[in-house]
Amino acid sequence: xxxxxxxxxxxxxxxxxxxxxxxxxxxxxxxxxxxxxxxxxxxxxxxxxxxxxxxxxxxxxxxxxxxxxxxxxxxxxxxxxxxxxxxxxxxxxxxxxxxxxxxxxxxxxxxxxxxxxxxxxxxxxxxxxxxxxxxxxxxxxxxxxxxxxxxxxxxxxxxxxxxxxxx
Length: 167
Hints:
Layout: H1 2-23, H2 27-47, H3 51-76, H4 89-110, H5 121-127, H6 129-139, H7 142-163
């Protein structure tokens, strides 16, 4: 009972703060709302007995990524106010409806069917969630993991080339 109440609290605050990230006019306020979102998502991970993912969520996203975002906001001196709803609001509304329909479709196709996959909850609890994540990441998803690391490497090299004045 108390876990359900805690989950609904965390989910509600996550959704509301994620909306604030998008609709706030001040970039610093959006970054603070993003921090609240990250912390509450980590709380949801804790409710799912996934301590490793909660720690990664706090350290990587709420720590490193958010500090980087705030650094860029301060460096670029983003003081320009922009109009929230411009002429593309009809297209944005349509894309939002399509994404919402996709989420509903995925929920009805997967969550209501029960547990699937090689790692049911009992097996994950037996071996530990960090080991289960490592096994899945470095066996089934090794190729996408390496592609993501290659994309990050290319982005890092591109940022160095753009930042360097003379080559």
